[in-house]
Structure formats: structure tokens, C-alpha cells
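Proteins fold reproducibly. Take a sample protein:
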Amino acid sequence: MLFFLILITNILLAQNSNSKSLPAYLDLQSPVFAISMVMVHYVVNPPAAGRYYAYCMLGAYEIVSKNNASIPSLSGFAKGYKSLPLLNNNTYDYRIASIYSILETGRLMLPSGYMLEENLEKFVQSLKDNKIEAQLIDSSIAVAWYQLLPQNYSLIF
């Protein structure tokens, strides 16, 4: 659990230092903050919050690891985790897919997750406003959903 909290911190720090070179719609702080606000609304206790953060980051981490050889896959160090092969789809943006995966996992898992629907809609709209092609958005969302397949739920529940 501690590993995932350290991972989240490192990702946020790296994101913050590189934020000048990334477009605003790829800001990782926004989806993590949205999940935090839902947990504050629901008054989630700290141990559960740590688990929710870890779960929300699992899919995103795996998507990024499939696109960056320097990041090991979860199946390499999490016993029982079955790494899913990527879809035969070269027309997606792994950054968009990972952010969507964070928000969608939170929406599905958190008791008040329905509150993240607006964040999901705003995220997709910001992609459209930044003239990201509809096909790229749709394929990135498909990759995010594919990563949420129930194969790995046995680790979570």
C-alpha cells in the first residue's frame, strides 16, 4: 500500500515539474483531486482512502507501463496480477487513457463515485476543445475500459 502512495506522490511531483510542457488536459492533479473531493464528501477513513487511491492508480500505471519500457508492469511485482495485453490499437494516447482510467475507476468503486461523472464529461469535453480527434478520444477510452476488465478484480476484492 505504501508503494502506491509513494508512486502517486512521485507521479504528481514529476507531473508538476513537467507541467510547462504538457497541455492542461493532461494534468494528473485534477483527476486525483476530484477523487479526493469525493472521498471527503463521503468521509472515507484514511486506510480506505489509501486503498481507493491505489486502486484508481492501478489501471493508469499499467497503461503507462505498457507504453514505457522503463516502467515495470504490475505483473512483475504484484503476485496474482494478470497483465492484460494491449489492444491492437496504435491510435490511442496512453496519457488520455490513463487519466480516464483513474476517473472511471473512482466512479465505479467509490460509494459516491457518481459524483465523478461530471469530471469525466469535463475531461472529454476539454479534449474536444483542444481539437483532439474523436477517434483518438474514443480509442483511448476503449483502452481505459479494457484495463478495467474483471480479470484483475480478484486482487481488489
